[in-house]
Design a protein that fits this description.
Elements (H helix, E strand, L loop, with lengths): L1 H4 L5 H10 L2 H13 L4 H14 L9
Helix pairs in contact: 3-4
Length: about 60
């Protein structure tokens, strides 16, 4: 994710996603995004959608 989709501001978001979501789900999302030649926004939308299904919020609390 960091290699292909990090825009310089998404590294924390991707680290949270990798740590909180199931590996199989992450692989499926990445395969779908790569097949669609997706961009950063599409990947973030897909990860947020996946997280919301599991009642997970991908945001740091300060």
């Amino acid at each position: 994710m960091l290699e292909k989709y990090d825009d310089g501001h998404s590294d924390v978001f991707f680290c949270l996603a990798v740590n909180l979501l199931e590996l199989d789900d992450l692989k499926e999302v990445m395969d779908n995004i790569d097949n669609l030649n997706g961009d950063n926004k599409l990947l973030k939308d897909e990860l947020n959608s996946l997280a919301s299904k599991s009642n997970i919020v991908l945001m740091l609390r300060k």
